[in-house]
Structure formats: structure tokens, C-alpha cells
Design brief:
It catalyses: glycine + O2 + H2O = glyoxylate + H2O2 + NH4(+). The protein has helices at about 10-25, 40-45, 50-55, 60-85, 100-115, 125-130, 155-170, 215-220, 275-290, 335-350, and strands at about 5-10, 25-30, 45-50, 90, 95-100, 120-125, 140-145, 150, 170-175, 180-185, 190, 195-200, 200-205, 225-235, 245, 250-255, 260-265, 300-310, 315-320, 325-330. By secondary structure, the chain is α+β, with helices and mostly antiparallel strands. It folds into two domains: about 5-80 and about 155-225 and about 310-370, FAD/NAD(P)-binding domain, CATH 3.50.50.60; about 90-150 and about 225-310, D-Amino Acid Oxidase, Chain A, domain 2. Strand 1 (about 5-10), helix 1 (about 10-25) and strand 2 form a beta-alpha-beta unit.
């Protein structure tokens, strides 16, 4: 049955969910207090790397990330087709580097369990490693090479998502400054700072780090906190970095626009998105040990975004009561871009009352902290 769905939040998660729900026949309205994609979404490096980002084991979160990676080829093609816009989507593969034998042992252990989940990865060393990444420091002992991992250019991806939503008829309202939930138990009624009301049959909360403000409204604990992630970029020639390169202190990824992005220096700073000299210095001190040529350059661009982190590291996805009138999809931390297609499908299933579709993802239920 076609319903009216209000989505709070116009970041990558909100736009992806809106697109999925509109394609399923619902009428969707997106409410954004600033500009769509203006926070964590637009600041992201756009890595689609569940094997490299999840190093501990095959928990529910890893499996969700892997599912989303597998959805991406079809998902991104659909976004491009609907929007009429293009964006970089590159299957570069990744290298997770090690400097010492102890680090290499950890990579071998990781490969052992990741190979059971579709990774065709391998440990590469010496000349074989330098053939894969010629400008890598010779101090790097070895690396775990994972061909399946990809990346995209996040700002263009988010713009294409927004355009795809508009093409399909999603109503998007930006620069609302503030929105509040006036009613949710019998119907959905949201008020913006300028006094307008937005009504719907169901509410999908995708407001990222601002979701915590709704704890009193819904009577549940919503421990979503902002973590500032600082990133810098270099202008380069001839794409000297071929893969996404990860280490225990950061990552590097080359983009088609002639830049190498390095991230991310993270700290707790509330809602402050100021770029600090200390945060960027930590990145530049690390990255020149990975690629020595970066030591001769200065970043031409520095920026920061707020990442929505949860108390246990898992996102909050699901309904808050048996009516499914209010559904959450927040707390994706540094994996919002990666998880956008899988979250869109899972959240849309919740909105439609398909509780059995949650399956393995009961660990994400938003009421688990209450």
C-alpha cells in the first residue's frame, strides 16, 4: 500500500532511503536542516572497503558492510541512470600494509577468516608488492591485497542521489534550521523552525549525529555522538597511488580528479568542524612514511566532517515499537557511504513492516540501549 513517508535528514543515508522508498511506490518527503550531504556525507573519502575497515572478525556489522559492497555495482548504476549524472566509481582494490613480522602475522590471520566471506585476497611482499604500488616506501614489509574493494567520489555521488530523488518525485526541503516531532503515536507531524508542518503516515529518522536530540521525544536512549574526522588532499600527477592503501594510522586513496586523499584524524570535539593543525599534522607525519614523495608536498585542501558514532559501534536501524510508525537509520560512523544501499533496503523493509527481513540484524535495533 502506498504511504506518505517523512525522512528526517538529507545525508547519504536519508537520500538513499528516500530513493528506495520512492521506487517502491511510496510518496517521500525529505527534511534537511542545512543542505543535503553537507555533513559527514560530503566530507567522506568514499571508500567501499568492508574487509579493510573491519579487522576483528565476521560479526553482524561486517556482514552488513559486505552485503552493501555486493549491492553497489547495480545500485550505483541505477543512481546514475535515474539521475542522468555520473560520478567516479573505481574498483581499485586495496592494500593493508605491515611494517613488522608481528603485523604480518595479524594480516595472515585476517585473511584466513576473510577468505571464507568471498575475499580473493593474498599477502604480497618484496618486488611483487612494489609492482602493485611502485611508489610505496621500501620500509613496508608486506601488505594484504584485497581486489574486491572499491571507492567512489562522495560529493558527486551524493549530488547524484539527490537528483535521482528529485527526478522520481521525492519532495526535498532544505535549510529548515530546526525540525521537531510534534506527533508520532497516531500520525506523523513534524514542524520546522519557520512554522511549517509536514505530515505523513510514517517517519524515518536519518538525522545522523542530531538523532540523539530525539531521545526524550521517543522515550528511548539514542547514544549517537559526533566524532570529528579531519582529512587532507594533495594534488598529484600521473596517479602515483594505484590502490586504496590502509595502515593502522590512516588511509590514502587516489581520485580521478588528480588528487590523493589522506584521512582520517579523529577526535571528540562536539559539533565543531574546525580543521586543526594538530589533526592534519598527524596525517602528514604518517603518510610520508607510506609514500615518501608526499613528504615533499603540502596538502592543498583540508576539511573535516562529523561522523555519527554509537556506543557499541553498530548503527541503529529498525522500528522503535510494534507499529513501525517510526523507524531509525542512524549511527553509521565512518561507513555511511559504504552502507547506503544496504541500509536503504533494510530501512525500507522496516517501514513496510517486513520485520522478518531484519534477519541477522537484530543487533542494530534502536531500542537496545533502553
Amino acid at each position: 500500500m502506498k504511504e506518505s513517508i517523512v525522512v528526517m535528514g538529507g545525508g547519504v543515508i536519508g537520500l538513499s532511503c528516500a530513493l528506495e522508498l520512492q521506487q517502491r511506490g511510496h510518496q517521500v518527503t525529505v527534511l534537511e536542516i542545512n543542505r543535503c550531504g553537507g555533513q559527514a556525507s560530503g566530507a567522506a573519502a568514499g571508500m567501499l572497503a568492508p574487509y579493510s575497515e573491519n579487522v576483528e572478525g565476521s560479526d553482524a556489522f561486517f556482514r552488513f558492510c559486505l552485503e552493501s559492497l555486493q549491492l553497489y555495482p547495480e545500485w550505483q548504476a541505477g543512481v546514475k541512470e535515474i539521475s542522468g549524472q555520473t560520478f567516479e566509481y573505481t574498483n581499485s582494490g586495496s592494500l593493508y600494509i605491515a611494517y613488522h613480522d608481528a603485523d604480518l602475522l595479524a594480516l595472515e590471520g585476517r585473511l584466513l577468516w576473510q577468505s571464507q566471506y568471498g575475499s580473493s585476497g593474498s599477502i604480497v611482499e618484496g618486488d611483487a608488492l612494489l609492482r602493485l604500488e611502485p611508489h610505496l616506501s621500501t620500509n613496508v614489509r608486506a601488505a594484504l591485497h584485497t581486489p574486491e574493494e572499491s571507492h567512489l567520489y562522495a560529493p558527486h555521488y551524493v549530488k547524484a542521489l539527490e537528483q535521482a530523488c528529485r527526478v522520481l518525485g521525492v519532495c526535498i526541503h532544505e535549510n529548515l534550521q530546526r525540525v521537531s516531532v510534534d506527533e508520532w503515536e497516531s500520525e506523523i507531524r513534524i514542524q520546522s523552525a519557520d512554522g511549517r508542518y509536514f505530515n505523513g503516515d510514517r517517519l524515518l529518522v536519518c538525522s545522523g549525529v542530531w538523532a540523539q536530540e530525539l531521545s526524550d521525544t521517543f522515550g528511548i536512549q539514542i547514544p549517537v555522538y559526533p566524532i570529528r574526522g579531519q582529512i587532507c588532499a594533495y594534488e598529484v600527477e600521473a596517479k602515483p597511488v594505484r590502490h586504496m592503501v590502509f595502515g593502522n594510522q590512516g588511509y590514502l586513496v587516489a581520485k580521478e580528479n588528480g588528487t590523493v586523499v589522506c584521512g582520517a584524524s579523529e577526535d571528540v570535539a562536539g559539533f565543531d568542524t574546525t580543521v586543526t593543525a594538530k589533526g592534519i599534522e598527524r596525517l602528514t607525519r604518517w603518510n610520508k612514511k607510506v609514500f615518501p614523495f608526499l613528504g615533499e608536498r603540502e596538502p592543498f585542501h583540508r576539511w573535516a566532517g562529523l561522523r555519527p558514532s554509537t556506543q557499541d559501534g553498530f548503527p541503529l536501524i529498525g522500528a522503535i515499537d510494534s507499529t513501525d510508525r517510526v523507524v531509525f537509520a542512524v549511527g553509521h560512523y565512518r561507513n555511511g557511504i559504504l552502507l547506503s544501499p544496504a541500509t536503504a533496503k533494510l530501512a525500507a523493509d522496516w517501514v513496510e513492516g517486513k520485520r522478518e527481513a531484519a534477519g541477522d540484524y537484530d543487533a542494530f535495533l534502536p531500542g537496545r540501549f533502553s
